[in-house]
Amino acid sequence: MADTDEAAIHMPSQDGSAHIEVDLSDETQDFRMLSNISFLTDGTQASIPKRGEKDFEPNPTLYQADILSASRQAMHNALSYPRIHHPKNQMIGVYAPNGPAPPSQHTPSNLESIAEGSPQTYAEVPSTTTTTTTVGNVHPDACVYVANPKSNLFKTIGQADRWNRIWLLPEEALFMLERGSLNIHWPRSEVGYDEDEEDEGDENNTEDSGIPMSLQAAYAAFASRGGLNSERFSVYTGLRRLGYTITRAPGWNDDGEDAAGIEDSGSEESGKHGAGLAGIYSRFMEWLCPPSTNTALGPVAGVGFHRSYDDIYSKLSIIPWYDPTAAPQAARSPAQAPYRVVFHVYKPSTPFKKSAPPPPDFRIAVVEARAHTSVPTLSQLGALLESTPLDPPTSEKMSRQLYMRLRHGYRNVILAVVDEGVVSYLRISEAAFGKEKLYKQKALANKTQYRPKPKPKGR
Amino acid sequence: MESDPPLPVPISYIAGSYFLFSIDAVTYLRREHHICGVLTGTLPQIPQQNVFLGLPLKLMPEEARLLVDNGVACIVDEVKAQREGMRALREADRQKYRRELESQGAHAMRLQTNRKEQQREEALKRVEAKKTAAKKKAAAAAAAAAAAAAVGEGEDNSAATGSDEPAAPDTAPAPAEDTLMAATTTSITSTSTPTTTTTTAPYGTTMGITPATSHPPLPYTPSPSSSTVLPPPTVPPSYPLFAHLHAEGYYLSPGLRFGCQYLAYPGDPLRFHSHFLVVGADWDEELDLMAVVAGGRLGTGVKKGFLIGGAADESGLGDAGSVRTFSVEWAGM
User: Fold this and answer.
1) Which of B34, B58, B275, B304 is catalytic?
2) Relative orientation angle of helices A230-241 and A170-178, to the nearest 10 degrees
3) What distance in Å separates the CA atoms of residue B74 and residue B62, rounded to the nearest whole number?
4) Over 70: is that where the pLDDT of B128 sits?
5) Which residues contact A209 (CB under 8 A, 6 or more apart)?
6) Domain boundaries, chain B
7) Would you give the distance in Å from CA A176 to the centre of its chain?
8) DSSP codes joined into one string, A378-400
9) In this predicted structure, what is the pLDDT of residue B214?
């Protein structure tokens, strides 16, 4: 007896679209498809090319060799596209290796004067001790400031300080530089000015040196800074490219506490007994013949009156199960790295305000596949899930569909498993099978679907 | 056409990962050494998608190790190299670097201006062609058909050309302005004081450039005795299998997407589908039969073979260190 799915395996399907939706990013795409798009002439055209045909295996034909070298040439051309900034809309950020700091007093107000400032003018300025006032509400890990922020990206990226400069976290700065939106310059302290000139002995001199950071330098400076690593950055930049808004979660640092989970789950076990007279009656009956907890003697359902199938079923359910809506036990072990929520993710459609971020649509923990090769243990998963707030399946659609409810679960988190730059996303949710009483479901379904026809009236 | 990079190629070690930033190195290693890596960066020309990605190229530790073992590459502690290298820059280096970038930026600006100019001319030509065609058509129509019909068509055509026209003036003023600015500023710089202290070009004539690599101003590779050169990367126990398959001409990439360690391609993944899902195992390692069955079914389901392999030890058949491979296929009896 052959399984149908086996038959399907051996029959190469004629129609690829009948299968699961093909994710183009799963495979190396032919860069020749990319060169069909002319970026330089038309910026509005942004459709992604369809995948090209591939051959089964190499053969020594010149034809194949030509196609391959054309593909490689297309890839070379695409990758060597420069990151250029038109002077009219160039944005310049400056790297601040020592974190957020207020501008030094003699900082010229606009960038043009910095750019035109010759070393003589710097020499004239007396070295000022930078005042150690706070810069306002800026994340301490921020390390790049942008003095002329003008981009739509800043709707969701960066934090402004009191001098109208926007400070960027390492991943934000690297992402913006990588996509060619931001030109980051070295500060004067990092490119040898303090060795040449006696007056610049200040380590905190974060003035623009006019020397741009290369992509390589930016990776070196930012990719391992402030808790960032290449796995987290892969997740960040991958989701950003797709249009999601993604911010650091409180669990970013290993010692950071994740306050998100501790919420009053205000759902108590109501509705066990109906309200009103029927409720009183059922309580009375329960008192009259209390549910026997001892199943060693007699039938599991117990001897006595059984007034409805529901009673019998509820007595038959002797396996204890975990109720995710119940308040968590006191001994709540904190989620350990890497099974901690490090990113909050918002769909592009969610209105996002930097000053007051709404509750996130997704919570993501990042796992390095090479370092953690086994499935997380139940306690790791439990701690991770408990660190997320209760998210019961309450939408109108889900209240109708049992399997949607089970799939959605009561708490959920997304694991991003990164294997050398290749990211796989897994959604883990806490399904409450115990809360879905099938016998009640059946009765309900029976009532709606097989309702006995009303008897014809009349005589 | 691409040029071959000088050897050894520097591989940047940053935050526990191995990166390549030079496009020449990426193309060269792919063509000559069958090392593909994984592109992880955003392409600046189309930043809103994940199908085509750009530099940097991330290498598996196995790939980096293989290149180092073959004497093609060396590992550089990039964080340290950058910090020390940039701090050691002298005023002369900085000026040279700035001038280089400026000339590149000016070149990019010229290219773009020319392109805009061309586009403008083409657009103008199109408009002209349309106008003449419309005139001819209108004339012909007027001659041939009744007066009422001709009027209607004439209106149509004038509407069509009218909608085309705004495109040309849109692009026209900008390049003219730019070339004007460029012309004036170049004359200014040529006549201005020859002191090299004013290195920055006047505002608006050059593109800002974010270079991909730090080769200028930093040296291409640090000197071998330098402390920024790192020892070869540590690799997982499956490295002998990796090296063996690579030596047999396979292209290998990380395989978690298909639930394995490596994907083995018979040729460049740009042009070929992978043939094997590869999982490394130690000699005499106990394998769970369920894992073999699962791998075999998975591989067959995606039209690939499931391949287990590892290096033989002294007790094994064959020479110690030689790699043996086994491919598993779901027989479907």
Assistant:
1) B304
2) 50
3) 13
4) yes
5) A185, A186, A187, A188, A190, A191, A193, B94
6) 1-89+217-235, 91-191, 236-333
7) 18
8) HHHHHHHHHTSPP----SHHHHH
9) 78
Topology annotation, domain B236-333: Trna Endonuclease; Chain: A, domain 1 (3.40.1350)
A87/B205 touch (CB, cutoff 8 Å), yes or no: yes
Residue B183 confidence (pLDDT) above 50: no
CB-nearest to B209 from A12, A82, A209 is A82
Contact A241 B42 (CB under 8 A): yes
Q: Chains A and B: how many Cβ contacts under 8 Å?
A: 280
Residue B273: active-site member:
yes
Q: Say yes or no: domain B1-89+217-235 is CATH 3.40.1170.
A: yes
How far is C-alpha B304 from the geometric centre of its chain's CA atoms?
A: 28
Domains of chain A: 23-79 (no CATH), 92-125+132-228 (no CATH), 229-261+322-459 (3.40.1350.10), 276-321 (no CATH)
Mean pLDDT within B16-43: 89
Peptide bond into A149 cis (omega under 30): no
Residue A72, pLDDT > 50, answer yes
For residues A204-220, give the mean pLDDT. 81
Residue carrying structure tokens 């040729």: B267
Count CB-CB contacts under 10 A for residue A427: 12
Residue B2: closest C-alpha in chain A: A76
Judge whether residue A10 has pLDDT over 50.
no
B277-308 pLDDT tens trace: 999 988 888 888 888 888 888 888 888 889 99
Query: Is beta strand A422-429 parallel, antiparallel or unpaired with respect to A208-212?
Result: unpaired
Q: Two tokens at B80?
A: 């340290």
Known catalytic membership, residue B246: no
Over the stretch A97-125, which tens digit does the pLDDT of each residue have? 887 877 765 444 444 444 443 444 343 33
**B129 has pLDDT over 60:** yes
Q: What would the pLDDT profile of A338-369 be if each residue is shown by its tens digit?
A: 888 899 999 988 888 888 888 888 999 999 88
Minimal Cβ distance to A215: which of B15, B55, B330: B55
Q: What is the dihedral of CA A251, A255, A260, A265, to 10 degrees?
A: 130
- B-chain residues within 8 Å CB-CB of A93? none
Closest chain A residue to the Cα of B333, Cα to Cα = A2
Q: What is the ipTM of this complex?
A: 0.73
Q: Chain A contact for B51, CB < 8 A?
A: yes
- Contact at CB, B207 and A79, closer than 8 angstroms: no
Q: Which of B34, B251, B265, B275 is catalytic?
A: B265
pLDDT band at B194 (very low <50, low <70, confident <90, very high): very low
C-alpha gyration radius of chain B: 30
Asked, colleague to colleague, whether B1-89+217-235 and B236-333 share their fold, the answer is no
Residue B56 touches partner A, C-beta closer than 8 Å: yes
Is-contact B78 B20, C-beta < 8 A?
A: no
Closest partner residue to B94 among A175, A211, A228, by Cβ?
A211
How many CB atoms lie under 10 A from the CB of residue A256? 14
Q: For residue A437, what pLDDT is reported? A: 80
User: Over chain A, what is the mean pLDDT?
Assistant: 72
Q: A190 to chain B: which residues are within 8 Å by CB?
A: 83, 86-87
**B211 to A215: CB separation less than 8 angstroms, yes or no:** yes
Interstrand relation of A159-160 and A92-95 (parallel, antiparallel or unpaired) = unpaired
